[in-house]
């Protein structure tokens, strides 16, 4: 949670200052790449743990162990989890929060709730895909690199989609804001008392 205000106060203003886009579409794509990197880091951590088990079993053939039965002094330190947790947290901030902002910034007023529900629907569909692939692939090491590959493919696909829809969406947002300003001006004019009554 501490990273959310850090992104708003430090990261996004710094990106604007050095000329990097902070548009919702760009942040979503970058967040997806961060998630892919987090899966890759998880894969290498899992590989390191499996290598420790393999080394133990080769040195002690009469006392074979599994990862769950390894002594604590032969396991990786718990702090090795920090890099992937940090990366996936950054990905969540860049993706999940920005998707909500994206829906409310570009969707018509009558469609804002629908867009939000569609985002939750895609999340539930993603969870279903995770359950299916987890049943198919038993080894965690394969799963991490598989998810990283899927995430990279999805990031590239999202980038291509955003390139096509960003300009029309910005134009729609500009026209909507202009329409809101005109509507507010008209309402204010109607509320003003007539000069005939003032005299």
Structure explained in plain terms:
There is one protein chain. The protein has 199 residues and is an all-alpha fold. Helix content is 79%, strand content 0%. It has helices at residues 3-17, 24-59, 82-106, 112-136, 140-191, 195-198. Helix 2 (24-59) runs antiparallel to helix 3 (82-106), helix 2 packs antiparallel against helix 5 (140-191) and helix 3 (82-106) packs antiparallel against helix 4. The termini are far apart. The relative contact order is 0.11.
The main sheet comes to:
none
Total count of strands:
0
Q: What is the structural class?
A: mainly alpha
Radius of gyration: 25 Å
Average pLDDT:
79
Number of helices: 6
What percent of the residues sit in helical stretches (DSSP H or I)? Answer: over 70%
Q: Strand fraction band?
A: under 5%
**Molecular shape:** elongated
Which keywords apply here?
199 residues, mainly alpha, disordered C terminus
